[in-house]
Amino acid sequence: MNSSPAASPPSDHSAARRAFTWVRAETADWLRTEGERWIYVVRAMLAAFSALWLAFRLGLDSPFTALATTIVLALPSSGMVLEKALHRFLGTLVGCAAALTLVALFPQSPTVLFLGLALWVALCTGGAAMHRNQQSYSFVLAGYTAVMIAVPSVDAPSGVFMLAVTRVTEVCLGILCSAVVHDVIFPRRHSRAVMRTVQARYTGFIDFCRQVLAHRITPADAELNHLKFAADIAALESGRAAAFFETGHSRSQTRQLHAFNAAFMTALTTFYTLHRLSHRLRMAGDGPVLALVAPMYAHLAQTLDEELSAARLAQMRTTLTSDIAIARAQLASGPAVTRAQQIDFDTAVELLERFASNLADFAALYQGLAQQKRQQVSDPGAYSPKTPPAIVAASGFRAGATLLVTAAMWYWLAWPGMVNAVLMATIFCALASSSPRPTAMVQQVLIGFLLAIPLDFITEFFMVAKSDSFFPMMLAALPLFAFAAYLSSGQRWAGVGIGIGMFSATLVVPANMMRYDVESFVGSELSLIMGVVVSYLMFKVVLPEHTMGHRGHVAAALWREAQNACGKGLYRLKRRFDNRVRDLLSQLNAAAGPAPNAETRAVVRQGLTLLELGHAVIELRQLIAASHAGDARDSLQVVLRELAAYLHAPSRTSGEAALQAILQAGSSLRAALPDAQHERRARLNMALTDLHSIYTSLLDQLSTGEPRVSTSAP
């Protein structure tokens, strides 16, 4: 008798299950994309109208200030909101104190008062351009808050104190509402975004190394990858700073993220130097050396294809040690090689061992972060951005000049509404000073202002004017502010959304004693737009090439950092040097956009060459500091002097002098090798590797458009 078939679930149940699975998948996908944006809009509107309602209940003079504060503080995660809120509070306090001081010093001298304000705004804007993080927002606020308090007090200095107190109260109200709403209602923790960034960084770097070792990526593409990695380093530090303000983020996690960033930069630099050496050997057709190191590259690539557990990395280093021993035996028993080939082989071995160690440290830190394990790490110091001094000075000068120009326009036009133009021009000159494309940023905000004109007019005179209490007024204004928040939640139209939100907060929100005056409305909107136009023109006219990430300033700053590697104090010098160079490349990446041109790529190549050279110089200085007096030490000091002279004043003559000093130092080091003890022999070999890196980097610099001056290795 045949067995009966197994019972199958009813078709209606399986269809329902499929439908439920489809709905759940679609809902999850929507929540990850559009859902996130609408949750952001809900939070922003709750914070905005909560602050506005409280401002009305407390009888504040300018309720729109509290609303505008929540619009400015509306950010995707609670950590970002709390971080920006703190810096807004500090900047507001300092700005109010500066305004009170200036008005008290020059109560009857408007001209001197405006000169003092211009100097203050210039200093604050320069500070903002120097820091380029949320700390810069404190500088921006301190600058334009002083203008917002002092300028209306020109004709009535006795009221400046009440203006300052009211400003602080209204801003604090907006800060409190934003902090509570974004941290309690549908909170989005920035620490999760930081961990996603860490994971993407780790997988991206491993994949990049795998492609390079498999020769599936060109040197030009590798340089662009380094440019993007530099931007990733800055982004991770910015995200870590925001996550620090959230509950559950401990000081130990901060130290781990600092160490992760530092380990990544170290591994990336070593791998770049290793890649450059491999590429030079392949281009030169150096068969014997390539044949010896090929098994090491193959085993390294094989390891990167697998999970980098501690056991696997230990096995990789054991295999590498065995490969090196075999290669050295083959080199000793085979045909004689030239001095240059011997140095190339020793350098490749040293770099492979160094990269294996760097990779193990990097993977261990990643595993600790991914598994949320607390690791005892020495804090290498935070990644610190640094802007070229010329751009800092230009940003301050531009902001101060903008204030004086608009103040002069106010005086000659004798138009009371021009005070809004003074404020808007000052605000956006300060805000855009840290942007790599300030004109594009101000242009987006201007588009938002222009789009807001008809929307605000309709909302103000056809909807809000008919409201007889707070809640009908809120319903009338809600679509406009929700539309602005939705636009600001996406990268493409964020500036337009911010422009609509700020413009609407200034014009639409009624005061406690409201007057619906069309003529005043039009005058206010014209003055606000005029201020943004003036700031746009100032960026176009006043020192237009002195903007963040301009390749000329970045190139000059890279040379200065290489000079510092030769002379600055050795304490944490390597970390500071790496930070500075990566930060400059990050600025270059932000200004270049998605498709860097040939000139930008040339600066990237130069920056990476100087990075390789600087690392070798710092390591050489550390070896000199730990060595005893003798011919080898003296010859290395001569190399440093000649190299510093070349970096200070690059020329063919100084470059050749540095190359000759390197060759002589190489001879002195090799002469000291036979009688050296094991520890000193290791240091001498490291010094030879560093000399080789410096030598080839100098050749790359000098051979640009010129024949090489020598082909022998140190």
How would you sum up the major sheet? Answer: none
Number of helices: 25
Judging from the principal axes of the Cα atoms, what is the shape? elongated
Rg from Cα:
31 Å
Strand content: under 5%
Total tally of structural domains: 3
Count of extended strands: 0
Q: What is the averaged pLDDT score?
A: 84
What is the N-to-C succession of helices and strands?
HHHHHHHHHHHHHHHHHHHHHHHHH
Structural class: mainly alpha
Helix content: over 70%
Q: Termini separation (Å)? A: 90 Å
Which residue ranges are poorly predicted, with pLDDT under 50 across at least 5 consecutive positions? 1-9, 705-713
Keywords: Cell membrane, Membrane, Transmembrane, Transmembrane helix, Transport
Organism: Duganella lactea
GO cellular component, one term: plasma membrane
Protein name: FUSC family protein
Structure description:
- The protein has 3 domains: 29-189 and 386-541, no CATH class; 190-245 and 251-371, Four Helix Bundle (Hemerythrin (Met), subunit A) (Up-down Bundle); 553-704, no CATH class.
- Helices cover 78% and strands 0% of the residues.
- It has helices spanning 11-32, 34-58, 63-73, 78-105, 110-131, 134-150, 160-184, 190-213, 219-243, 251-284, 287-304, 310-333, 339-370, 389-413, 418-431, 438-463, 470-488, 494-507, 518-541, 551-567, 573-592, 598-625, 631-648, 652-672, 678-702.
- Helix 6 (134-150) packs antiparallel against helix 15 and helix 8 runs antiparallel to helix 9 (219-243).
- The radius of gyration is 31 Å and the shape is elongated.
- 47% of the residues are buried.
